[in-house]
Every structure is written in C-alpha cells, then in structure tokens.
C-alpha cells in the first residue's frame, strides 16, 4: 500500500520551523546565540562555520553530535576532536585525563538534554564534566539540539530528561539501574544512579559565547 507522506511532512516541517525559530529567538533574548537549522545537514554546516580550521574541539558525550556526522567533517577541517568515549581509554586514569583535556579545548561541542519554550537550557550529568564545561570555561560553546529536546517549562524538561534520555542512555552504557529496566525514572538511590548533577542555564554566563542550534528533526535522546 502506498502512503502519501508529503502533505503531512510539509505540515510537520512547518510546525518544527515555527517552534524552532521561536525558541531560538528566546535563547538569543537570554544572551545565548540562537540558530535554527532545517535538518542535520544544515546544522552541521552551521557548526563548521562556527569552528575555525585547526581548532581543538572537545565533545563531552553526545549522540546528537555523532548523528550529524561532525567528527569526520571536523577532521577534514584539520581540527582535533577530543572525546572520552574513545574505546582505547581502558583505565580510569586515562579517562580522567581525557575529561580534563575536553574541558580545556578551544571549542565545546555538545547537545543539551532539554530546552524550554522561554530559552532555558536544562542538563543532567552523572559525572558532571559536561555541565561544568557548559557553565564555566574559556571555550566557545556550540550546542546542537533536535526539535524533540524542546519542552514547555522546567518541570516538563526534567520529566523529558529523566523519563526518556536517561533510561536510553543507561541502556547504551549497560548501566544496571532501575530506569533502564522499567523505562522511566523512579528517583532511585542506586550506586550507579545516572542523574546526579543538574544544571539550569537561565542566561548565558558572563563572558561565554554559547551558540544553540535547534534542528527541525529528531536527534539524540
């Protein structure tokens, strides 16, 4: 059976554009630099335009950044990508050093777990390296977020992160924690609990150039 998708896709794309451009504008009003990209290809080009050739780019864990194909494109620009997801890091000491190196890069390239209609960024970490680098540092920050990351308010943003992103990431990391088994947050006290450090960015911190690229597609978790 042939199903006509194009008419429905056009409405969906228009809605994503309206929502994405609105939230990007709200981000700019809060001191971030908001952008809207129609798709992953356009988002990647924006990322490449914002990163100088040969820059050292830290990627502190992000499925979104991998989905848009940033690593290969950055290497073609002569950039050095620093990431602690590197499977060659077999000791805790090596991983800790890589986390430190990520923090000190010229550019921090990641996503945000959620962002609200009014342009507030919400993130939750287990280790805290990503939220620390977002909140303070000397690097330029570029955050790429699929349209699925948008929530109405703080309450919904936290629900979205805890009930959606965290259980999937727990499965990806083979973490034996309750949300990975039941599919949603139970506010556990498990030794491996993934939700530990919560960062709410209501405004861009002093002295930080933070770009928020909202993409009219579903990306990441």
Helicity range: 40-55%
What overall form do the CA principal axes indicate? Answer: globular
Count of DSSP H/I helices: 8
Strand content: 15-25%
Count of strand segments: 10
Along the chain, the helix and strand elements come as HEHEHHEHEEEHEEHHEE
Gap between N and C termini, in Å? 31 Å
Global mean pLDDT:
94
What topology, given as strand order, has the largest sheet?
A: 1-10-7-4-2-3
Category from helices, strands and their pairing: alpha/beta
Oligomeric form? single chain
Spans with pLDDT under 50 lasting ≥5 residues?
none
Radius of gyration: 17 Å
Biggest sheet architecture: 6 strands, parallel
Summarize the structure in short.
With 221 residues, the chain is an alpha/beta fold. 41% of the residues lie in helices and 19% in strands.
